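Onboarding guide, step 5: your first structure request.
Type a short instruction followed by the sequence, for example:

Predict the 3D structure of this protein.
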Amino acid sequence: MDIHDSTLLDIHLRMVRIRTFETEAGKLAEQGKIPGALHLYVGQEAIAAGVMSQLSNQDWITSTHRGHGHLIAKGGEYGPMFAELFGRATGYCKGKGGSMHISNMELGMLGANGIVGAGPPIAVGAAFSIRYRKVDNVAVTFFGDGASNEGSFHEAANMAALYKLPLLFVCENNGYGEYTPQESHQAISDVADRAAGYGMPGVVVDGMDAIAVYESTHAAIERAKNGDGPTLLECKTYRFFDHVGVRGMGLSYRSDKELEEWQKRDPIHMFEARLDEIGVLSLDQSKAIHDEVFADVQEGIKFAESSPTPDPSTLLDDVYA
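The system replies with C-alpha coordinates like these:
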Protein backbone atom coordinates (compact mmCIF):
# COMPACT_ATOMS: atom_id res chain seq x y z
CA MET A 1 0.00 0.00 0.00
CA ASP A 2 1.04 3.60 -0.61
CA ILE A 3 1.74 5.54 2.57
CA HIS A 4 1.69 9.34 2.35
CA ASP A 5 4.92 11.16 3.15
CA SER A 6 3.21 13.03 5.99
CA THR A 7 2.27 9.70 7.58
CA LEU A 8 5.84 8.43 7.31
CA LEU A 9 7.11 11.60 8.99
CA ASP A 10 4.47 11.22 11.69
CA ILE A 11 5.55 7.64 12.41
CA HIS A 12 9.19 8.73 12.56
CA LEU A 13 8.47 11.51 15.04
CA ARG A 14 6.50 9.17 17.28
CA MET A 15 9.42 6.73 17.37
CA VAL A 16 11.98 9.43 18.13
CA ARG A 17 9.77 10.85 20.89
CA ILE A 18 9.51 7.42 22.52
CA ARG A 19 13.23 6.61 22.23
CA THR A 20 14.35 9.96 23.65
CA PHE A 21 11.92 9.86 26.57
CA GLU A 22 12.82 6.30 27.50
CA THR A 23 16.57 6.83 27.22
CA GLU A 24 16.47 9.87 29.48
CA ALA A 25 14.06 8.19 31.90
CA GLY A 26 16.50 5.30 32.17
CA LYS A 27 19.32 7.68 33.09
CA LEU A 28 17.16 9.35 35.75
CA ALA A 29 16.24 5.97 37.22
CA GLU A 30 19.92 5.01 37.47
CA GLN A 31 20.55 8.29 39.27
CA GLY A 32 17.85 7.39 41.80
CA LYS A 33 15.57 10.27 40.74
CA ILE A 34 12.68 8.03 39.69
CA PRO A 35 11.29 5.70 42.37
CA GLY A 36 10.12 2.17 41.73
CA ALA A 37 10.55 -0.20 38.81
CA LEU A 38 10.91 1.22 35.31
CA HIS A 39 10.21 -1.03 32.31
CA LEU A 40 11.56 0.70 29.22
CA TYR A 41 10.36 0.41 25.62
CA VAL A 42 13.64 1.04 23.79
CA GLY A 43 13.85 -1.19 20.70
CA GLN A 44 10.10 -1.69 20.33
CA GLU A 45 9.20 1.81 19.07
CA ALA A 46 8.06 0.74 15.59
CA ILE A 47 5.09 -1.11 17.06
CA ALA A 48 3.57 1.71 19.10
CA ALA A 49 4.23 4.23 16.32
CA GLY A 50 2.93 2.03 13.52
CA VAL A 51 -0.28 1.28 15.40
CA MET A 52 -0.98 4.61 17.08
CA SER A 53 -0.47 6.67 13.92
CA GLN A 54 -3.82 5.23 12.79
CA LEU A 55 -5.81 5.82 15.97
CA SER A 56 -7.76 8.82 17.23
CA ASN A 57 -8.39 9.87 20.82
CA GLN A 58 -11.72 8.07 20.55
CA ASP A 59 -9.97 4.76 19.87
CA TRP A 60 -9.08 3.06 23.14
CA ILE A 61 -5.97 1.14 24.09
CA THR A 62 -4.91 -0.95 27.05
CA SER A 63 -1.23 -1.16 27.85
CA THR A 64 1.27 -3.16 29.87
CA HIS A 65 3.91 -2.60 32.53
CA ARG A 66 6.08 -1.42 29.59
CA GLY A 67 3.63 1.28 28.64
CA HIS A 68 5.39 4.64 28.35
CA GLY A 69 5.87 4.15 24.63
CA HIS A 70 2.19 3.50 24.09
CA LEU A 71 1.12 6.69 25.85
CA ILE A 72 3.74 8.81 24.09
CA ALA A 73 2.71 7.41 20.70
CA LYS A 74 -0.93 8.11 21.61
CA GLY A 75 -0.07 11.78 22.13
CA GLY A 76 1.17 11.92 25.73
CA GLU A 77 3.08 15.05 26.74
CA TYR A 78 6.49 14.90 28.35
CA GLY A 79 5.75 17.19 31.32
CA PRO A 80 2.90 15.23 32.91
CA MET A 81 4.55 11.93 31.96
CA PHE A 82 7.80 12.71 33.76
CA ALA A 83 5.81 14.22 36.62
CA GLU A 84 3.95 10.93 37.01
CA LEU A 85 7.20 8.96 37.04
CA PHE A 86 8.56 11.37 39.65
CA GLY A 87 5.41 10.95 41.75
CA ARG A 88 4.39 14.60 41.41
CA ALA A 89 0.90 16.08 41.64
CA THR A 90 1.06 17.42 38.06
CA GLY A 91 1.39 13.92 36.60
CA TYR A 92 -1.26 12.31 34.44
CA CYS A 93 -2.48 10.34 37.47
CA LYS A 94 -1.60 13.08 39.97
CA GLY A 95 1.56 11.21 40.96
CA LYS A 96 -0.34 8.20 42.28
CA GLY A 97 -0.07 5.80 39.37
CA GLY A 98 3.61 5.91 38.57
CA SER A 99 5.30 4.12 35.72
CA MET A 100 3.26 0.93 35.66
CA HIS A 101 -0.20 2.50 35.99
CA ILE A 102 0.03 5.67 33.94
CA SER A 103 -3.09 6.54 31.95
CA ASN A 104 -5.00 9.35 30.27
CA MET A 105 -8.64 8.92 29.37
CA GLU A 106 -8.74 12.01 27.13
CA LEU A 107 -6.21 10.33 24.85
CA GLY A 108 -8.01 6.99 24.96
CA MET A 109 -5.25 5.42 27.05
CA LEU A 110 -7.10 3.20 29.53
CA GLY A 111 -3.93 2.55 31.46
CA ALA A 112 -0.66 0.74 31.75
CA ASN A 113 -0.98 -2.29 33.98
CA GLY A 114 1.42 -4.03 36.32
CA ILE A 115 -0.59 -7.27 36.18
CA VAL A 116 0.58 -9.47 33.31
CA GLY A 117 -2.30 -10.17 30.95
CA ALA A 118 -4.73 -7.77 32.64
CA GLY A 119 -5.23 -5.56 29.60
CA PRO A 120 -7.08 -7.85 27.14
CA PRO A 121 -10.28 -8.26 29.21
CA ILE A 122 -10.45 -4.48 29.75
CA ALA A 123 -10.07 -3.96 26.00
CA VAL A 124 -12.90 -6.41 25.36
CA GLY A 125 -15.13 -4.19 27.49
CA ALA A 126 -13.98 -1.13 25.56
CA ALA A 127 -14.64 -2.85 22.23
CA PHE A 128 -18.08 -3.96 23.42
CA SER A 129 -18.83 -0.35 24.34
CA ILE A 130 -17.85 0.74 20.84
CA ARG A 131 -20.19 -1.86 19.33
CA TYR A 132 -23.00 -0.99 21.75
CA ARG A 133 -22.75 2.74 21.01
CA LYS A 134 -22.48 2.06 17.25
CA VAL A 135 -19.50 4.36 16.75
CA ASP A 136 -16.75 3.99 14.16
CA ASN A 137 -13.84 3.23 16.47
CA VAL A 138 -11.64 0.36 17.57
CA ALA A 139 -9.95 -0.85 20.72
CA VAL A 140 -6.37 -2.14 20.83
CA THR A 141 -4.78 -4.24 23.54
CA PHE A 142 -1.01 -4.60 23.83
CA PHE A 143 0.57 -7.56 25.62
CA GLY A 144 3.72 -9.66 25.54
CA ASP A 145 4.53 -13.24 24.66
CA GLY A 146 4.42 -14.18 28.34
CA ALA A 147 0.96 -12.67 28.76
CA SER A 148 -0.35 -14.84 25.92
CA ASN A 149 -0.02 -17.78 28.34
CA GLU A 150 -2.44 -16.21 30.81
CA GLY A 151 -6.06 -17.28 31.02
CA SER A 152 -7.16 -13.67 30.81
CA PHE A 153 -5.81 -13.44 27.25
CA HIS A 154 -7.59 -16.60 26.14
CA GLU A 155 -10.90 -15.59 27.69
CA ALA A 156 -10.66 -12.19 26.02
CA ALA A 157 -9.76 -13.71 22.64
CA ASN A 158 -12.66 -16.13 22.83
CA MET A 159 -15.23 -13.46 23.70
CA ALA A 160 -13.92 -10.90 21.20
CA ALA A 161 -14.07 -13.42 18.36
CA LEU A 162 -17.45 -14.79 19.42
CA TYR A 163 -19.07 -11.35 19.33
CA LYS A 164 -16.95 -10.06 16.41
CA LEU A 165 -15.84 -7.08 18.45
CA PRO A 166 -13.78 -4.24 16.88
CA LEU A 167 -10.59 -5.19 18.72
CA LEU A 168 -6.93 -5.64 17.80
CA PHE A 169 -4.78 -7.98 19.85
CA VAL A 170 -1.19 -6.75 19.47
CA CYS A 171 1.38 -9.14 20.90
CA GLU A 172 4.74 -7.43 21.33
CA ASN A 173 6.84 -10.58 21.29
CA ASN A 174 10.30 -9.49 22.45
CA GLY A 175 11.40 -13.07 22.98
CA TYR A 176 11.34 -13.06 26.76
CA GLY A 177 8.79 -13.36 29.54
CA GLU A 178 10.76 -11.31 32.05
CA TYR A 179 14.00 -13.34 32.05
CA THR A 180 12.64 -16.54 30.48
CA PRO A 181 13.16 -17.09 26.73
CA GLN A 182 10.07 -17.90 24.72
CA GLU A 183 11.16 -21.44 23.91
CA SER A 184 11.26 -22.17 27.64
CA HIS A 185 7.69 -21.10 28.33
CA GLN A 186 5.85 -21.97 25.09
CA ALA A 187 5.77 -25.00 22.83
CA ILE A 188 5.08 -22.79 19.80
CA SER A 189 7.31 -20.29 18.03
CA ASP A 190 4.51 -18.04 16.76
CA VAL A 191 1.96 -16.66 19.22
CA ALA A 192 -0.15 -15.79 16.16
CA ASP A 193 -0.91 -19.53 15.76
CA ARG A 194 -3.17 -19.28 18.79
CA ALA A 195 -5.61 -17.10 16.87
CA ALA A 196 -6.92 -20.08 14.88
CA GLY A 197 -8.34 -21.61 18.04
CA TYR A 198 -10.68 -18.65 18.40
CA GLY A 199 -11.67 -18.13 14.78
CA MET A 200 -9.70 -14.98 14.07
CA PRO A 201 -6.76 -14.22 11.76
CA GLY A 202 -3.28 -14.48 13.24
CA VAL A 203 -0.61 -12.40 11.51
CA VAL A 204 3.14 -12.45 12.16
CA VAL A 205 4.72 -9.01 11.66
CA ASP A 206 8.31 -7.77 11.69
CA GLY A 207 8.03 -5.57 14.77
CA MET A 208 11.26 -3.75 13.90
CA ASP A 209 9.77 -2.50 10.62
CA ALA A 210 7.39 0.42 11.21
CA ILE A 211 5.91 0.18 7.72
CA ALA A 212 5.16 -3.53 8.10
CA VAL A 213 3.43 -2.78 11.42
CA TYR A 214 1.48 0.09 9.86
CA GLU A 215 0.26 -2.00 6.92
CA SER A 216 -0.80 -4.97 9.06
CA THR A 217 -2.55 -2.68 11.52
CA HIS A 218 -4.36 -0.91 8.69
CA ALA A 219 -5.78 -4.19 7.41
CA ALA A 220 -6.80 -5.27 10.93
CA ILE A 221 -8.56 -1.96 11.59
CA GLU A 222 -10.49 -2.23 8.31
CA ARG A 223 -11.56 -5.76 9.23
CA ALA A 224 -12.68 -4.63 12.69
CA LYS A 225 -14.64 -1.64 11.40
CA ASN A 226 -16.31 -3.76 8.73
CA GLY A 227 -17.80 -5.90 11.49
CA ASP A 228 -15.59 -8.93 10.80
CA GLY A 229 -14.14 -9.07 14.30
CA PRO A 230 -10.69 -9.06 15.89
CA THR A 231 -7.22 -9.85 14.58
CA LEU A 232 -4.16 -11.06 16.45
CA LEU A 233 -1.00 -9.27 15.31
CA GLU A 234 2.21 -10.79 16.61
CA CYS A 235 5.01 -8.24 16.26
CA LYS A 236 8.43 -9.87 16.57
CA THR A 237 10.65 -7.38 18.37
CA TYR A 238 13.40 -7.02 20.98
CA ARG A 239 13.98 -4.79 23.96
CA PHE A 240 17.43 -3.21 23.97
CA PHE A 241 17.40 -2.52 27.72
CA ASP A 242 16.87 -5.06 30.46
CA HIS A 243 13.50 -6.24 31.78
CA VAL A 244 13.70 -3.57 34.48
CA GLY A 245 15.69 -0.37 34.01
CA VAL A 246 18.69 -0.15 31.73
CA ARG A 247 21.03 -2.76 33.18
CA GLY A 248 18.45 -4.52 35.35
CA MET A 249 19.61 -6.82 38.09
CA GLY A 250 22.70 -8.11 36.30
CA LEU A 251 21.20 -11.50 35.47
CA SER A 252 22.90 -13.43 32.65
CA TYR A 253 19.90 -14.67 30.69
CA ARG A 254 20.83 -13.38 27.20
CA SER A 255 24.15 -12.93 25.44
CA ASP A 256 25.84 -9.72 24.36
CA LYS A 257 26.03 -11.18 20.85
CA GLU A 258 22.25 -11.65 20.74
CA LEU A 259 21.69 -8.04 21.78
CA GLU A 260 24.23 -6.77 19.24
CA GLU A 261 22.55 -8.70 16.42
CA TRP A 262 19.17 -7.18 17.24
CA GLN A 263 20.64 -3.71 17.59
CA LYS A 264 21.81 -3.96 13.98
CA ARG A 265 18.09 -3.85 13.17
CA ASP A 266 17.37 -0.77 15.27
CA PRO A 267 13.86 0.24 14.12
CA ILE A 268 14.64 3.96 14.11
CA HIS A 269 17.94 3.65 12.25
CA MET A 270 16.40 1.35 9.64
CA PHE A 271 13.41 3.66 9.18
CA GLU A 272 15.58 6.76 8.87
CA ALA A 273 17.76 5.04 6.27
CA ARG A 274 14.62 4.13 4.34
CA LEU A 275 13.21 7.66 4.50
CA ASP A 276 16.55 9.06 3.33
CA GLU A 277 16.67 6.59 0.46
CA ILE A 278 13.21 7.53 -0.85
CA GLY A 279 13.81 11.25 -0.38
CA VAL A 280 11.28 11.86 2.40
CA LEU A 281 13.71 12.83 5.18
CA SER A 282 17.47 13.26 4.97
CA LEU A 283 19.76 12.00 7.71
CA ASP A 284 20.64 15.62 8.57
CA GLN A 285 16.95 16.42 8.94
CA SER A 286 16.52 13.35 11.13
CA LYS A 287 19.30 14.57 13.42
CA ALA A 288 17.61 17.96 13.71
CA ILE A 289 14.41 16.24 14.81
CA HIS A 290 16.31 14.23 17.43
CA ASP A 291 17.85 17.45 18.77
CA GLU A 292 14.49 19.21 18.93
CA VAL A 293 12.85 16.30 20.72
CA PHE A 294 15.74 16.08 23.17
CA ALA A 295 15.20 19.74 24.08
CA ASP A 296 11.50 19.02 24.64
CA VAL A 297 12.39 16.14 26.94
CA GLN A 298 14.65 18.37 29.02
CA GLU A 299 11.78 20.85 29.42
CA GLY A 300 9.55 17.99 30.53
CA ILE A 301 12.08 16.93 33.16
CA LYS A 302 12.37 20.50 34.47
CA PHE A 303 8.58 20.66 34.72
CA ALA A 304 8.50 17.43 36.72
CA GLU A 305 11.35 18.41 39.04
CA SER A 306 9.70 21.73 39.86
CA SER A 307 6.27 20.20 40.47
CA PRO A 308 4.91 19.60 44.00
CA THR A 309 4.37 16.19 45.55
CA PRO A 310 0.75 15.18 46.18
CA ASP A 311 -0.85 16.57 49.34
CA PRO A 312 -1.42 13.71 51.84
CA SER A 313 -5.02 14.90 52.25
CA THR A 314 -5.69 13.76 48.63
CA LEU A 315 -4.70 10.15 49.35
CA LEU A 316 -8.17 8.71 48.77
CA ASP A 317 -9.20 11.10 45.99
CA ASP A 318 -9.95 9.38 42.67
CA VAL A 319 -9.77 5.94 44.25
CA TYR A 320 -13.47 5.29 43.89
CA ALA A 321 -15.63 6.30 40.93
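Each response can be followed by summary notes, for example: The first strand starts at residue 60 and ends at 62.
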